[in-house]
Design a protein that fits this description.
Blueprint (H helix, E strand, L loop, with lengths): L8 E5 L3 H11 L4 E5 L2 H7 L7 E5 L7 H12 L5 E5 L4 H9 L4 E4 L5 H26 L11 H16 L4 E4 L6 H11 L7 E5 L8 H6 L16 H4 L4 E5 L6 H13 L1 E2 L8 E2 L3 E6 L3 H6 L5 H7 L2 E4 L10 H14 L7 E2 L1 H9 L5 H18 L4 E2 L6 H4 L3 H8 L2 H19 L4 H8 L4 H14 L8 H6 L3
Parallel strand pairs: 1-2, 1-3, 3-4, 4-5, 6-11, 6-12, 7-8, 8-11, 13-14
Antiparallel strand pairs: 9-10
Length: about 475
């Protein structure tokens, strides 16, 4: 298993010194371990938001003494995951601890080092992921797009460079719904032009007959119906950022005018007699194959190179699977903040559907899907978004299932088997020694061999089942 950050801190409170000496080397593989042996030690060591995990013995000097410490810890720091430690025969008390907010319980002498480490790492990772989402929410006024995928990080780096420069022309490439407008807004919000205007123009939404007038403006009497002067989008964007979306839709005659504007940073209104100097940064976006359009003579080559001084490519959501659930949680948190849903999480089945769906509408479609499901969950007063809350396309003959049918049948069966293995492990508090019985395997070694074989044949499935992979050290 991968080692955790050394910034990770784990607090262990147990009066059984032999047990602590046994588990301490295991826990040190996950982070820095702080140890206490009594109630007094707990109150001396525990500080809110200072630990990433707490392991707490339920019985110290007195029966159920640990329950009081558990309640105290969660009152002071609701975000910290607490694992309770029980001796054999203390299961009833452990259940009481779960009801009080503990994440799970472990029984001494009934858990292996590997199982303990897997559980600890799982809860630490969940906490850090939650902290990341909360941090993103706090910065939502500044951050316009979310993701940990290397491709999206590179896009963010380039956008930051463009923002700091404030002059260079930027061309954003990506499919519909990948967040091109959000990147343009990010360039404006974080750049040296943030005090100026952000002018957003969708070329395809403009009338082709009046496109030049909309962009460059016109004087009174410039043409029939021009009863007064009109200030165009370029002038409106003076000292700010002008975002031209769907630039591939630009008429060839207007392309020539745009090229002149970029070369001189001046415009002349239709019907005007003087050039007007402007200070702006141009950001354009498209999902069209501009290179092919250039070869066919549909788009000016010289304009193409003027626009793509700095090119930012946004990957489709299907190519950044590791971000799908992070984005889904982010959108759900936004809805929670607005009081629009009571849902707190997604079921494992819903997560798997999200991870396997093709997302032709990309991030925009994911956001709308989460909103739809969250509102459905609110109607049913459910705190968990399940498959039943998803749009109809996800539940019947959806694109998700069409894609599944086109996949290799052996891979489908392997993924299905992993789904049930994960479900069984969750029901058994991630105890492999019990999960195999639920699944009907002849012994636990058979389940181990199946997991290793599946991940060997389809290593990409580790992205869909990271907890199972870590459980088996894969």
């Amino acid at each position: 298993m991968a080692k955790m950050s050394r910034n990770t801190r784990i607090l262990v409170i147990d009066d059984d010194k032999n047990f602590i000496e046994q588990v301490r080397p295991v826990l040190e593989r996950a982070g820095r371990v702080v140890v206490g042996y009594s109630e007094g030690d707990f109150y001396k060591l525990f500080r809110p938001y200072q630990f990433d995990l707490v392991l707490l013995d339920l019985r110290l000097q007195e029966e159920k003494e640990g329950l009081e410490l558990l309640r105290y810890a969660l009152e002071e720091d609701p975000s910290v995951p607490v694992i309770v430690i029980t001796a054999y025969g203390s299961v009833d008390t452990a259940i009481e601890a779960l009801q009080a907010g503990a994440r799970t319980y472990i029984q001494k002498n009934k858990i292996t080092d590997t199982e303990l480490l897997a559980i600890v790492e799982r809860f630490i990772q969940e906490k850090k992921a939650q902290e990341k989402i909360e941090a993103l929410l706090k910065e939502k006024e500044k951050i316009s797009f979310v993701g940990e995928d290397p491709k999206i990080k590179e896009a963010l780096r380039l956008a930051q460079t463009a923002a700091e420069d404030g002059e260079t022309s930027v061309l954003i490439r990506g499919e519909t719904g990948t967040g091109k407008e959000l990147v343009a807004r990010f360039i404006h919000q974080t750049g040296r032009r943030k005090e100026g205007p952000f002018v957003n123009v969708a070329i395809s939404a403009l009338n082709k007959e009046t496109l030049a007038s909309e962009l460059f403006g016109h004087e009174r009497g410039a043409f029939t119906g021009a009863t007064q002067r009109h200030i165009g989008y370029f002038e409106q964007a003076h000292r700010g950022v002008l975002f031209l979306d769907e630039i591939g839709e630009l008429d060839p005659d207007v392309q020539k005018k745009l090229l002149r504007v970029l070369e001189t940073h001046t415009i002349r209104r239709l019907g005007g007699t003087r050039d007007i100097e402007l200070d702006f940064q141009l950001v354009t976006a498209t999902n069209a194959p501009l290179e092919k359009m250039v070869e066919k003579g549909l788009f000016r080559r010289d304009l193409y190179y003027r626009l793509k001084v700095l090119e930012i490519k946004l990957p489709p959501l299907r190519e950044r699977k590791s971000d799908i659930l992070l984005l889904a949680e982010y959108f759900l948190k936004q809805l929670q903040e607005k009081g629009r849903t009571e849902a707190q999480s997604f079921s494992e089945e819903a997560k798997q559907i999200f991870l396997n769906y093709f997302w032709p509408g990309n991030v925009r479609e994911l956001k709308h899907t989460v909103e739809y499901a969250a509102l459905r969950a609110r109607l049913s007063r459910s705190s968990v978004i399940t498959r039943a809350h998803l749009p109809t396309d996800f539940k019947t003959n959806s694109k998700y299932f069409e894609i599944q049918e086109r996949q290799d049948i052996k891979k489908i069966l392997a993924e299905t088997e992993l789904h049930y293995i994960q479900e069984a492990l969750e029901k058994c508090s991630w105890k492999k020694t019990e999960a195999w019985k639920l699944l009907g395997y002849p012994n636990r070694f058979t389940m181990l061999r199946r997991v290793k074989r599946i991940f060997a044949d389809y290593p990409e499935l580790k992205l869909n089942f990271p907890e199972v992979a870590k459980m088996y050290g894969l």
